[in-house]
Every structure is written in structure tokens, then in C-alpha cells.
Design a protein that fits this description.
Elements lengths: L5 E4 L9 E8 L2 E6 L3 E4 L7 E10 L11 E4 L13 E7 L5 E6 L7 E8 L2 E6 L3 E4 L7 E10 L11 E4 L13 E7 L5 E6 L7 E8 L2 E6 L3 E4 L7 E10 L11 E4 L8 E9 L9 E6 L7 E4 L5 E7 L2 E8 L6 E7 L5 E8 L3
Parallel strand pairs: 21-27
Antiparallel strand pairs: 1-4, 2-3, 2-5, 5-6, 7-8, 8-11, 9-10, 9-12, 12-13, 14-15, 15-18, 16-17, 16-19, 19-20, 21-24, 22-23, 22-25, 25-26
Length: 353
């Protein structure tokens, strides 16, 4: 039996002379004549019930009564319709080794049986639900996926949309190489400059930590550091470590030692004259001096009858010098004394009021 055929068989009839043949009736209508005891009823409609009986006849055209009636139903027509392609495929990265897939279920004229999952064009799994967990993947790797639906008859849909997803990168556990060629250069009694060769890293160096006497004093991104405000004539020990974005810290560079220069006290002076705008010397002109903005350091000096003045014993620093006199407009300026300054000459002219 199939969707278009029903086969009939029966026991042979007897006759006083001899049976010549059999007439086969389908739904009350003669469908065929045969000489054997079987008949194949073809060209039928799928999923349809049919009634059959048979009559025997002899050469004299004598017909027997009808056999018992039998009923039979043809099978359903074969399913040749494929499901619709899965839609809205989405890939979600969960970890370094797992990507989860979800999609909108397919539809089918009979029913969807399952889904085949393809990764990089190779089938990697079959599921009955509209989701798939793909594990065992390689970290930091891009994968492409698509899905096909199938039904019980083996009909396969077209492919879903293709999605790509990249697993998370493996954690960076490799530290940078140690900084090399650390050099300490003494600049002054208060500053030491450091330079070194850059470290390397499998991902990238992001910073350097500078240590002075085993205490971290700075984190920088360059391969040089100026350590200022040190004490004169003092030895300091330095080393440097490199760091990457994952926080991996290199071993320390070689340790270097450097000693700041001794403190040098500079004694300088400022001298000169103060004149009125009428070009006459100002006698007893007042000159005030304040060092580095500290009011307690204020000192006062006066000009002589020739307008001359002298400010002795000045050490390194920045001085505010103010010149004033009766019936004249005061005038101020900054005077910087460095380690190389000796004497400075000033000729000041004050405007009359």
C-alpha cells in the first residue's frame, strides 16, 4: 500500500466447469478484470478510504455473488515541503571558549523536527530547540555560524542568516621584560635624572614604576624621570619596573646609585644708582628687598648723597627689589640670583610725581 495504490488478494472461486476470471469493484464501480487472485489498484488519492469487492465469472458468463467488502485507506502523500529558514540568528560571546546561539523557530507544513548548527561551514551539532551552546572554542578567535531546519521527512530548509562572533581573548599573564641600561645622571645638589631602555611585552608596555631606596616614587609612561627636590650630598639608589595593561609587573632593572652634588652657597650683590627723572641723584632713596616672597626676609637699604646703593650677601633665590623716594613713583622688579651670579649693576630712574 502507498499513497496512490492498494493491493488486493483473495482465495480462488470454484466452478463446475472452470473459473475464467474475476471482476474487481471499487466503491461499487468495476475497476478491473483479472484472471489471477490478486489486483493492484493504482492511481488513487492519498489519505482516501476505498471499498472493494470481487466477483468471479466462468466461460459461460455466469457471475458469482460478490465477495465480502473490504475497506482500505491510502497512505498520506509524501512530505516534500522544506521548513522555512531559521531567522534572526544571534551569537552571544560568553567567555574565552563559549558562544551561545539563539534564533527564531522555523515553520513547516507538517512540523519542524530539529535544527543543524554549522560553524565555519561545518555541521557541529543538531538540536530540537531554537538555541545552541557552542563550547570548547579557542580564545580570541572569530567564528561564523548559520542554522538549517529539517522535518521528519528529511526536508532541509535554506540557511539562516550568518553571524560572526569572536571569543574573549585569553587573559594576559605575561609580564614585560625588565627595563635595561638604567643610568642615573646627577644634575645638581637637588636633582638626579634617570634614563633606561624600553621594555617589551607580548601585548604592550603601558607604564614604568620608579623606585628610590626601595620605595615607589613615580609611575610614568616614558623612559626617563627627573627626581628633583633631593638633599645635597646624599646617595640615592634607584631601580625601575615595567607594567602592562593587565597589571603584570616585570622584574626590577639593575639598581644604580647616584650622589647629589654638595650644596653651593652663592654670594652675590646688587649695586647701582637711583636718579630722579630730572637726572639728579636721589639722596636717601629707600630700597626694600624680599627673598622668595617671604616677608620676614625683608631688608631695607638707602642711597647715599650720590644716589648710590649696594645690596650685599645675596644667596641663590628670587628677590623682589622695590625702589622709592619722596615725591617719586615707586618702582619694583625681580632679581634672580643663580649659582653663577656674582655682581649685578642697576641704574634706576624714578619718575617725579
Amino acid at each position: 500500500m502507498s499513497s496512490t495504490q492498494i493491493n488486493l488478494t483473495w482465495s480462488a472461486s470454484t466452478d463446475n466447469v472452470g473459473v475464467t476470471g474475476y471482476e474487481v469493484y471499487r466503491n461499487g464501480v468495476k475497476a478491473g478484470t483479472v484472471t489471477s487472485t490478486s489486483y493492484n489498484s493504482t492511481g488513487l488519492t492519498a489519505s482516501t478510504a476505498y471499498n472493494y469487492y470481487v466477483r468471479a465469472f466462468d466461460a459461460a458468463s455466469n457471475f458469482s455473488s460478490a465477495s465480502t467488502t473490504v475497506s482500505a485507506t491510502t497512505q498520506s502523500a509524501p512530505d516534500t515541503s522544506a521548513p522555512t529558514p531559521p531567522a534572526n540568528l544571534t551569537g552571544t560571546v560568553v567567555s574565552q571558549s563559549q558562544i551561545n546561539l539563539t534564533w527564531t523557530p522555523s515553520s513547516d507544513n507538517v512540523g519542524v523536527t530539529g535544527y543543524d548548527v554549522y560553524r565555519n561551514n561545518t555541521k557541529v551539532g543538531t538540536v530540537t530547540s531554537a538555541s545552541y551552546t557552542n563550547t570548547g572554542l579557542t580564545a580570541g578567535t572569530t567564528y561564523t555560524f548559520f542554522i538549517k531546519a529539517f522535518d521528519a521527512a528529511g526536508n532541509v530548509s535554506g540557511a539562516s542568516n550568518t553571524v560572526s562572533a569572536t571569543t574573549f581573548a585569553a587573559p594576559d599573564t605575561t609580564a614585560p621584560t625588565a627595563p635595561a641600561n638604567l643610568i642615573a645622571t646627577v644634575i645638581s645638589s637637588t636633582q638626579i635624572n634617570l634614563t633606561w631602555s624600553a621594555s617589551t611585552d607580548d601585548v604592550g608596555v603601558t607604564a614604568y614604576e620608579v623606585y628610590r631606596d626601595n620605595v615607589k616614587v613615580a609611575t610614568i609612561t616614558t623612559t626617563g624621570y627627573g627626581d628633583a627636590t633631593r638633599s645635597p650630598a646624599t646617595t640615592y639608589y634607584y631601580y625601575v619596573k615595567a607594567r602592562d595593561a593587565a597589571g603584570n609587573l616585570s622584574t626590577a632593572s639593575a639598581t644604580v646609585a647616584a650622589t647629589t652634588l654638595p650644596q653651593v652657597t652663592t654670594i652675590a650683590s646688587v649695586h647701582g644708582t637711583v636718579f630722579s627723572s630730572s637726572n639728579t641723584p636721589i639722596y636717601l632713596g629707600k630700597i626694600t628687598v624680599i627673598k622668595d616672597g617671604v616677608s620676614k626676609s625683608k631688608k631695607t637699604y638707602y642711597t647715599d648723597s650720590k644716589g648710590a646703593f649696594s645690596i650685599p650677601n645675596l644667596t641663590t633665590g628670587t628677590y623682589k627689589v622695590t625702589y622709592s623716594a619722596k615725591q617719586h613713583v615707586s618702582q619694583s622688579e625681580s632679581v634672580v640670583i643663580t649659582s653663577t651670579t656674582t655682581d649685578i649693576t642697576k641704574n634706576i630712574i624714578l619718575q617725579r610725581r
